[in-house]
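Sample A.
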Amino acid sequence: MDEDRELYRNNVQSAWRRPQLREPTFADRLSSALTLDFRPMAGRPLPAEVQPRTFSVEPAAVPETYSLKEAIRLLGLPSIVGAKTPLDDLKGLVKFAVTVEHGLMVQYLYASYEAKKSRDELSSIAIEEMGHLLTVLNLLTALDAPIHLGRYDANLDRLFDPFPFKLEKVTAEVIAKFTACERPDDEHVDPEERPLLPEILDAARKSAGVTPARVGLLYTKIYWLLRPTDEPLPNEPWRDFPFEDVIKECPKDWHVRPFPVTNPADREGGEPWKNQLSDVLVGSVTTREEALKGIADLTSQGEGFGAGNDAHFDRFVTLYSAFKQNPDPTREVPKDPWYQGAPACKQFDTGPCTLC
C-alpha cells in the first residue's frame, strides 16, 4: 500500500508533489490561514518532503479511474494540522468546504451571466451551489464556530482548490472542468456517458489540470467526523460509504460529540437557513441525523463521490456535448474582473480595499 502511494506521488503529477512556495497575495493576507495535512496512515509522520506548510501545488492529473476507495488508498484523508480534538478538525475542514462551495458558486454564476442559450441551466446549477454553501454554513454555526465566507482563491493552502479560480469565457473546455469537479464515483456514471468521460477529462486537464478527488475526500472526512461511532449506522445516509478504508485513516473513535455543539437557534440570526425551493438542497443540521443527511445529499448532487437524481455531473455532461456541437454565443465580459474604483488599502498598502 505504501509502495503504491510512493509510486503515485513520484510518477504522477499529484497533490503529493513537492510544494511550490509563493509569497502571500493581498487576498491571502485578508483570509484566515488554515494548514492541511494529508496523513498516509493515522498516527504515522509525513515524509519530510510533504510536511504540511502554507503552499500552492502544481495542477494534478485526473486519475483515469475515479473511485472513493482508490482515492483514499492513494491520497489518504485530510486533517487540520494542530487539531487536538475531532471538533478542531471538523471546524477547520468545514471552513475549507465553505471556500469551495463559495468559489464554485461564483464561477458558475459568472458563466450563467455570460452564456445565452445555456444560461438557465447554468443559473440553476449555481443556485443549487448556493444551497450547498448554506448547508456548510449551517454546519459551521452548529459547531459554535464564527461564520466564515472565504472563497478558495483566497486560501493560503491550495490542496482543495477544485481547479484554479477563474472568471472567464464559457467554452466546452471550461464546462469540462466543471464536469470533472462534479464527477461521481465511476460506478455511478451512466453507461451512456462513460464513452465521453476520457474526452471530458482530457479537456479538463487542458483547461485547468483539475483533480476532482480532493473535494470528495474533504466531504468524506467531514461525514466521518459527524458520525456518532466507528460502527455502521442502521440507516446510513451515505450509500456505500467505505467504512473499512476510512477507519484505517482516522484515529479510533474520532467523532464530534455532542452534536450540535450549540443550538443554532441560540446564535445570532436565529434559526438556520432553510430551503425555499424544491430542487435546492439546504441542510438545517439541527441534529446529527440532519447533518449526516445534509452532507450525503450535498455530495450526491455534486462535488462528492455519490450520484443522485438530477446530479450536476449529468447536467454538465449534457452541456459539454451541446457546447461541442454548437458553441453558445456569449456576452462580451472581462476575464477575471477586479473592481478598481476603491481606494488603496491602508493596512497593506496594495490593491483596492473597502475595509479601511
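Sample B, a different protein:
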Amino acid sequence: MSEKITEDMSRARKTAGAESRRDQVLTTKVGLHIPAGLSFEEWERAGRQLSGLLNSSSWWLGDWLVYGKDQYADRYDRGIRAAGLQYQTLRNYAWVSRRFELHRRRPALSFQHHAELASLPVDDQETWLDRAERMKWNTKQLRDAIRAERAGTPQPTSAVATTRRLAVPDSRLQWWHKAAAHAGAELEEWVTATLDAAANQLLEEADLPLARTARALDARGAIVPAQ
C-alpha cells in the first residue's frame, strides 16, 4: 500500500512539474519557448530576467578573457576557439572589464553604461557613475550628458530634461555657441529666442492668434535676435 502511495505521489509531482514548465518561458539554444496565453506580468518578468542575464554575460565573458590572457598567454587563443567565440567579439568586453575592477561595478547600471566611461580617468568614471545611478539615466542620456559637459552646455537636471535635448553634431553646436556669444546670451536662451522669433514670424504671416502668445515672451526677458 505504501509503495503505491509513493508511486502516485511521485507521478503527481512529475505531472505538476511538466505542467509548470508548460506555463513558463523556457530558453533553448535557438530561441525562447513562450507558452500561449502568457500574462503581461509574466512576459515583463521574463524580459527583466533576460536583460539581467545579457548584462551579466558581458561582464562574465570579459572577466573570463582577462583571466585567460593573464594566466595562459600562450594558450588562451585555443581556449577561445574551443569555446566557439570570436576574439573580436570579446575584446571590448575584456577592455571594459579591465577598466572596472569588480568592486567598482554598479549593479544598478548596465555593462554599456560602464563601456561609455571606460576611456575616462578613474575619478571621472566614478563621478559619472554616481550621476547616472542617481538620475537613472539610460546609456543614451549618459552619453548626451557627457557630450553636453564637454561642449560647455548646462547639464540636464533630470531624465525628463534629457529627453527634451536635441541631438546635434558637435560642429553645429560649436557654431551655435559662437552665435550666442556674439549676441551676448547663454546658448539655451539664444536657441529659445531664435526659435521663438522664427515661430512668431511664421504665425504672423499665417495671421494666427497664437502669434500674440509668442510676443509675450519679451515680457519674460527673452532675447530676440536683431532682424
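Observation for Sample B: The radius of gyration is 28 Å.
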